[in-house]
Design brief:
The complex is a heterodimer of chains A (632) and B (202). By secondary structure, chain A is mainly α. Chain A contains 28 helices and six strands. Chain A has helices spanning 2-25, 30-41, 53-60, 62-73, 77-82, 84-108, 113-124, 128-137, 144-166, 194-225, 229-250, 254-265, 271-295, 299-304, 306-330, 335-344, 351-361, 367-395, 408-414, 425-436, 448-456, 469-474, 490-503, 516-524, 535-548, 553-575, 581-606, 619-624, and strands at residues 418-421, 442-445, 461-463, 482-485, 508-513, 529-532. In chain A, helix 23 (490-503) links the parallel strand 4 (482-485) and strand 5. In chain A, helix 7 (113-124) packs antiparallel against helix 17 (351-361) and helix 9 (144-166) packs parallel to helix 16 (335-344). The radius of gyration of chain A is 32 Å and the shape is elongated. Chain B has eight helices and six strands. In chain B, strands 1, 2, 3, 4, 5 and 6 form a six-stranded parallel beta sheet that branches. The longest helix of chain B has 20 residues, at 157-176. The chains are: A mainly alpha (632), B alpha/beta (202). At the A-B interface, helix 26 of A face loops of B.
Amino acid sequence: MSGNFLFQAVIYLSAAVFCVPIAKRFGLSSVLGYLFAGILIGPFVLGFIGEEGEDILHFAEFGVVMMLFLIGLEIEPKNFWKMRKTIAGMGGMQVFLSMLILYTLFYFQGYSWQASLCVSMALSLSSTAIVLQTIKEKNLMETSFGSSSFSILLFQDIIVIPMLAIVPLLTTRTIQGDGGHSMGHSTFLESLPIGLEAFVVLLSVALVIVVGRYLLVPLLRLVAQTRLRELFSASALLIVIAIAYVMELVGLSPALGAFLGGVVLANSEFKHELESNLEPFKGLLLGLFFIAVGASINFNVITNTPIPTISVVVGVMAIKALVLFLVAFIFKMKTDQRILLTVALAQVGEFAFVLLSFTNQLNILEQSQLDFLLVVTAISMTISPILSLLTERWLLPKIGTKESEERPMDRVANKQKVIIVGFGHFGSTIGRFLRANGVHATILDHDSNQVDLLRKLGFEVYYGDATREDLLESAGVGEADLLISAIDNPDTTLELAGIIKRKYPNLKMMIRAKSRYDAYQLITMGIDSIYRETIDTSVRMACDALFQLGKRKYTVYRQGQNFIKYDEASMRRLAEERLNSEKYIFKAREEIAQQEAQLKEDLKRLGGLNEEDQAWDSEIMREKLGTSNEET
Amino acid sequence: MNQILILFAHPKYEQSRANQALIEHIKKTEGVTIHDLYQQYPDYNIDVYIEKDLLQDHDIIIWHHPFYWYSCPPLLKQWIDMVLEFGWAYGPGGNALSGKVAMNTITTGGTREVYCSEGYNHYTIGEFLRPFEQTAKLCKMDYLPPFSVMGTHRLTENDLGSYAQQYSLLLEWLKKGDLGTGERDNCQFINDIPELQIIPST
């Protein structure tokens, strides 16, 4: 058994490892790579996996749940509320128009009205997994294409629940056997009268929100204090799986529940830590899901009935595309965004597998019809990323309107992104000053007590260890304009600086250095903006000391400024010599002497040393100008 | 070709429509160095060595500033105090700037009309700018009449646009050299010389 399991794991993983980099090399999205990997190892090409592909499909649907949780994490509740009109409007229009046309079509093809209704419901839904994965990969969430796609898909995730509830009402027969699908049926919810049903739905949504806010955050805080990374991963998984389980128990969509859970936690300090922990799981499960879709394509159906298959695929996708185009037109999207949306959401989605199998179990749909439609679904899912790619490469360049052209100005104004790493006394001063000037930085700190306190003070602080690349990534280091390191520990600072230099060479970095020696190391790494934490304060103190000794404040202040300037310059020159200690001492002495000479020179200009002063009513001036008392 | 150094001093540049219009329009002109003093020396700690080098590399010096309390903002005065050193810019052996050209570019809230003996400011711009004129002369520089954008509060975007255009005509004219003497000295403002007249766009 375990040998079999390991063999399967080897097959799946090697197919992925082999196909995905090839797809990426050709500039395709990873989704296509996984799909082809699935076809390759499926029963009709290499035959490594057979019927169990379907079970894996259901298991891997959990990747979709996880993805929605992660998307939820990035949407703050108030933004979600703002989207409600687009979700209901665009989503509703897309689903019902598509259903109407598809229903008519299948009814006249000789399907019973029950079957036509079920099929139209199943085929009107698009694939959240494919579309959102592609959008996220290409970083298009901010465009109107991205947000409308998301709205429509979210609506579909919601509408699938009543759809699943309606299907059993269409048959008089009882359910034969229990498929045990993740999109549950014959649940607790269905056994209740309608009024109570609505109440239970609301109750479970409320439960997710309340538990998320008042139980999960304190729990995560406790876990964070243990500083055990794997424990945090376990908690993150637990959250998502528990939400999915509860939702399934009551008969709600686990994906929707997970999304809600994500939204609830979007405001918490653990946002980025959760993201970076779940990201690999999500990626793997989704990959598995796509492989399973690829493997489940029944090529027998295609070879037996090639023309009907192809024409139904083309027909269904054309109808969906047409409806999407119309919806986008009504919602006044720009031409290029409208075309992107039309092509991207035209496929039949993963919900079709669930809905159609369910319908078949209820005997509304015959086995041959089911096989046929499943093939249609899988093919449309496979060709959809190809179509998107073709649109992007060939069609869009020929059409003028590009959304990005209008945006750069307000992007610069509103979306300058600053990340502050380390939020102790040093970092929090920086953060407060920036905030007073209207710059709201993303702040990372690894002390969860500190994070809790700062959050209560109203800072947007996230818990996490900033030397982990995945955490930096989910904090948005890729899009940041500036990274400020205010870390106390010099080793951590160096590690962070190294990661940024290597991975994000174009990101501007400003770094706090503990001492001159840490600064030397940073200089050798090629970092320009280095801030030694003691130099300004010690010079200020020295200035005050001179003032106490009777020197004039302005002169001393100027000298202080110049001292810092010359010291910075000499530090850069000395950085090269620090490895050779003998030479270093010699050079350092030379530098110090030079600095002092330079400061004396400056002092003459300021008129601070009367006996040597050459400017403004000095001895020399009087001498050279004879008896004149004028200054100029 | 003459090299032009614009010593730009404006403590509230973000809020100055007029100066933004001028600077934005000319900032990429070849042979013109814009030296933004408030950007360079927020601490007023002027680096005399750098400033002297800059002066030596240019032929024409323009003090470009808003006309605050009948004079320049304090950092430009600090610049004059610190950089134009005795024995370098003036006094015995002080010939570093000899033969160069200096002038002011100013923006004022008041219109031309209020700067005369009958107006509420009582004196002309030329009279107010005497310290600059004499500074230039003491440093053996040729001093030109000021380029002025006046009554800035009431100027429309279009007006500002034509001033900006005129400013760049001025820079082109200064770059070419051959500044003559006669006509320009009779003008109170360099804006009025024939070379800077643009046909107003309708």
